[in-house]
Amino acid sequence: MSTPLLPLSQATLASDPRLLAAVREIGVRRGFDYTDDAATAALLEERRKAVHRSGAGAPGWIGALLIVAGILWPLFSPMVPALSGKPPALLFGPAVPLLALGSWLWVLVRRRWKRQLLHPLLEGYREAIGCARAHGVPVTHIPDWLVGRTQSGSGEGAAPIPSYPEAEAAPRSASSGVAGPGGAAGPAVVAVPAKPPAVSQYEATADEGGWHDEAGCLLLVAGAIGVAYGVTQDVPAGYLAGALVPLAVVTWLAARRGREKQRLREQAVAYVRALAAAQAAGARVPELSPVLRKLLAEETERATE
Question: Is 32:38 a contact under the CB 8 Å cutoff?
């Protein structure tokens, strides 16, 4: 996305002066201004790429291949004629160094990934998110990579957001639109875009499958082949495959729902982009639903591929 949606923005932090002060203290300690949205967005993008690179690459793939080879060697080596009747040490011995070297490479990759994940500036940002939670301030989303969790994973991740005691309720303050000293009005509150009905519908149907087009095509081909076989080979049972043709039509009709789901997805992407633009303009964006968080992660990955 051209405008990133931050977990926390300056406007959100400023909604609670105590939180703003705490985050500024974290920034002083870490040597970074987490209240600067542009700098924070650049930091997160740079660190996200670094974390991704550290977990990918040749060492990880080679390690995985060596581990697989070490597991398969004892199973398939007895089937090789040249090795039949050989001592067990020759059959199973090579598996040990393969597994050892593969595991060592994986440990190196894991350490490099964990080192990038525990970067001091990312640690500070996770502290800021933990403070926001303690103060009851909404966090729009927590990227999976930021806490060391796979996109489809669960749990807190390898670098969870720290927990702090719940802060007392902030004293009620005047609205930001109230006139200040000398009659000057405070900064106008930027409105958060309303969620369109199409986005709510997408959230309700996002987990439904989209396999109908492919299944309909397979059913039609199978039905046509079965009927053709019955005609050419004079096999009456082949005509029964003709029942697959109407089933394919029904499946294709269901595929229209899949296309409707794609249209709703596009509406949801546009809504998330509108939220990001509103946040950049100073709006306090609420927490995203799990479906929209997943959509945001997918779009972010797609934009950098």
Answer: no
**Distance of alpha carbon 208 from alpha carbon 263, whole angstroms:** 14
Q: In terms of residues, how long is the chain?
A: 305
Contact 187, 176 (CB under 8 A): yes
281's tokens: 């303009």
Radius of gyration of the chain (CA): 28
How much is the pTM? 0.71
HEC sequence for 240-289: HHHHHHHHHHHHHHHHHHHHHHHHHHHHHHHHHHHHHHHHHCCCCCCCCC
Helix (H, G, I), strand (E, B), or coil: what is residue 179? strand
> Contact at 8 Å (CB) between 268 and 202?
yes
Quote the tokens at residue 109. 């990759």
Burial class (CB in 10 A: 0-12, 13-18, 19+), 74: middle
DSSP letter (8 states) at residue 78: G
Read off the pLDDT of residues 31-84 as tens digits, 9 standing for 90 and up.
999 999 999 999 999 999 999 988 887 888 888 888 888 888 777 766 666 666
Amino acid at 263: R
Is 15:137 a contact under the CB 8 Å cutoff?
Answer: yes
The contacts of residue 134 (CB under 8 Å, 6+ apart) are 163, 164, 165, 166, 167
Instruction: Return the closest-CA partner of residue 226 out of 200, 251, 208, 247.
Output: 247
